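Fig. S4 source data, part A: sequence.
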Amino acid sequence: MDPLRKVEAVQDITLMLHEQARLADLNRPDEQVLCFTEDVVADYYGEQLHGRDAIHALLNSCPQPLGRE
């Protein structure tokens, strides 16, 4: 990978991570899950989750913050 493409890739990944964190802070799981690819494999709380639907189910099972419904 040439140096410019590498910098662009790192920037794209960084921006996506920031967006995912912003949506997590706002408790918007329907949008947050779109930051992941369909075939994502992630480890949350020691449990491996496979696929965007599995992450969406986990995010929707989390308690709602006080004052938000």
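Fig. S4 source data, part B ends here. Residues 3-25 form the longest helix (23 residues).
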